[in-house]
Design goal:
398 residues, alpha+beta, 6-stranded antiparallel beta sheet, 14 helices, 35% helix, 18% strand, globular
C-alpha cells in the first residue's frame, strides 16, 4: 500500500561527489542484506521522505537503501526525465509500474541496480539498458533540484492544489472528475460543491485503494460510493476522456474493439479454458512499439472473421487458431524472452500463445487443466518470466 503524491519536472544531473557518497552508503548495506536475503511482500518499511509514507516488498527495500544514502533529505518524483538525469541512489519504478529498484551505478548506456523481492529475495548487480531506464514509469530522487535552495512555495493568491495526495498520472483524471461534477451532491451525507477537501479526500482514498493507475476502477468505485447511479454506458462515455482502454475495463467480458479501442461491440462469451499469464523481467515502451510498427505487405493480420465465428460456435480451438498480434513484429526482436515464453507454453500443450498488447506479457490458452498446471510449474521454476499466473476466463453474466 502506497500513500501517493505529486510529480515535479526533471532535474539536472546530481554532483559526482554526492553520487559517490550515496554509492558507498548503499554498498555498505550489502553486508546487512547480502545477495539472496529473503525479501517478499511481507517486508514493510516506513518512509519519511515524502511522496509515499512507506511500502512493502520491492518498494520497502528501495526506501531502505534510499534512506541509507540520503538520510532525511526530501524526495521528488519525476515522470519525465532523460538518461542523463539518472543518478546513483535514485529509485526507478519499472516493469509497467510493478517493481521498484535503486540505481547503484550509472554507465554510458546502462545502469546497475539493487532490488528487493526479486524472486522473493534481495538481488545486487542486475543491469538495465538505457532504453529500459527511460521506459520506467517514474523516477524518485533525493538530490536537490539544480539552482534551488528551498522548495517552491505557492504565492498567497494562488490556492494550493486540492489534490495534493494524488500522483501525476491521476491528477488529470481527478480534475476531470470534479469538472464533470461527478463528486458533487446535495446531501449532507455525501458531498456538496463547497466541500473541495472532502472531494479530494474521497478521490485520494479511491486512488490508493486500487493500488495502481486504474481509472476504470476509480470511476466504478466513485459511482458506487457516491451513489451516483450512472449506467455502465454513462461511465464508459466519461471514461474515454481519460483513456481509450477505460471503456473496455468498465464494460469487461468479450468485445470487439475498433477505432483506437474505444468503439466496443459486445460478443458471445469466450469459451471456458485455463489461461496462463507470464511476464518477463523487462519493460516495454508502448510509444516505441507503435512508432516502429510497419504496416506493410509482410504483416500477417489475424483472421477476425474466423475468430468471431469461433466465438459464436463456442469453439475454443477455432478461437485459439485465429489469434494474432501484429505488435509482436516489433517487440519480440527487441525482447526475445517473449518468444521463448510463448514457445514454452506451446511446448506444454497450449492451444495457442500470444503477446498481450504491446508486451511484454504473454498469455496461453489451455483446454486441459493438467497441461496448464505443468506449464505453470515449468515457467515458475525457470528464469524466463518473473511473474507467472494461472487463471480462468472472465465472462459477464448474461
Amino acid at each position: 500500500v502506497l500513500c501517493l503524491g505529486t510529480a515535479v519536472p526533471a532535474q539536472a544531473s546530481a554532483p559526482e561527489a554526492d553520487q559517490q557518497q550515496a554509492y558507498q552508503a548503499i554498498l555498505a548495506m550489502k553486508e546487512q542484506y547480502p545477495e539472496g536475503t529473503p525479501w517478499t511482500n511481507d517486508n514493510h518499511y516506513a518512509w519519511d521522505a515524502g511522496i509515499y509514507s512507506g511500502g512493502y516488498g520491492c518498494v520497502a527495500f528501495a526506501f531502505l537503501l534510499s534512506d541509507a544514502a540520503f538520510g532525511d533529505l526530501p524526495a521528488r518524483m519525476l515522470t519525465e526525465f532523460s538518461f542523463s538525469d539518472v543518478s546513483v541512489g535514485d529509485i526507478l519504478r519499472i516493469n509497467d509500474d510493478t517493481h521498484s529498484v535503486v540505481v547503484l551505478e550509472v554507465h554510458d548506456d546502462h545502469v546497475v541496480i539493487a532490488e528487493g523481492n526479486y524472486n522473493r529475495s534481495v538481488h545486487w548487480g542486475r543491469t538495465l539498458t538505457a532504453q529500459q531506464v527511460l521506459a520506467a514509469d517514474n523516477l524518485i530522487t533525493r538530490y536537490p533540484e539544480s539552482g534551488t535552495q528551498t522548495p517552491d512555495v505557492p504565492s498567497p493568491e494562488v490556492p494550493a492544489h486540492p489534490f495534493h495526495d494524488v500522483p501525476g498520472w491521476g491528477s488529470d483524471a481527478v480534475s476531470w472528475a470534479v469538472s464533470e461534477a461527478i463528486t458533487t451532491g446535495t446531501s449532507s451525507t455525501t458531498f456538496s460543491p463547497d466541500r473541495v477537501c472532502a472531494n479530494a479526500d474521497i478521490l485520494t482514498f479511491l486512488w490508493r485503494s486500487v493500488g495502481s493507475p486504474d481509472p476504470a476502477a476509480v470511476l466504478y468505485g466513485m459511482n458506487r460510493m457516491l451513489r451516483l447511479n450512472l449506467s455502465k454506458r454513462e461511465l464508459m462515455e466519461r471514461g474515454v476522456k481519460i483513456g481509450a482502454d477505460v471503456p473496455y475495463c468498465i464494460m469487461r467480458g468479450t468485445a470487439l474493439a475498433e477505432g483506437i479501442g474505444e468503439k466496443l461491440t459486445s460478443l458471445p462469451p469466450m469459451p471456458g479454458c485455463r489461461v496462463l499469464v507470464a511476464k518477463p523481467a523487462v519493460s516495454v515502451s508502448t510509444k516505441f512499439v507503435y512508432e516502429n510498427l510497419k504496416l506493410d505487405d509482410d504483416i500477417v493480420h489475424p483472421d477476425i472473421d474466423m475468430l468471431l465465428e469461433g466465438l459464436k460456435e463456442s469453439n475454443l480451438k477455432k478461437v485459439a487458431a485465429n489469434m494474432g498480434n501484429i505488435l509482436e513484429s516489433v517487440t519480440i526482436p527487441c525482447y526475445p524472452a517473449i518468444a521463448q515464453i510463448r514457445e514454452e507454453m506451446m511446448r506444454h500443450g497450449a492451444l495457442n500463445a500470444m503477446m498481450s498488447g504491446s508486451g511484454p506479457t504473454v498469455f496461453g490458452l489451455f483446454e486441459k487443466e493438467a497441461l496448464a498446471e505443468k506449464a505453470y510449474a515449468s515457467l515458475r521454476a525457470g528464469n524466463l518470466a518473473k511473474q507467472v499466473y494461472l487463471t480462468d476466463i472472465f465472462n459477464n453474466r448474461r
